[in-house]
Amino acid sequence: MVKNVALCGGSGASLISNAIASGADAFVTADIKYHNFFDAENKILLVDAGHFESEKFTTEILYDLIIKNFPKFAVRFSETNTNPINYL
Fold this sequence. Notes:
There is one protein chain. With 88 residues, the chain is an alpha/beta fold. It has one domain (5-69): NIF3 (NGG1p interacting factor 3)-like (Udp-n-acetylmuramoylalanyl-d-glutamate--2,6- Diaminopimelate Ligase, Chain: A, domain 1). 31% of the residues lie in helices and 18% in strands. The protein has four helices and three strands, in the order βαβαβαα. The chain has helices at residues 16-21, 36-39, 51-55, 58-69; strands spanning 5-11, 26-30, 45-48. A three-stranded parallel sheet has the order 1-2-3. It is flat.
């Protein structure tokens, strides 16, 4: 059963031991290499969500923070897709 989840947007494989030490049952991040999964030592569930995908919604979070703190600041979203991976 998963009760506590650690999260790192982008590449967070170097933080696996921190996630274990924090008492998390699962760690959601990206760019986990094959051998990094052995670092989990059956102590934590690792979820490799994809680098682009794990950061995709941060623009909306930043937008909300900027508008809240600087209501007269103009914020525009780019429509350029920078994900170099195409899923088939």
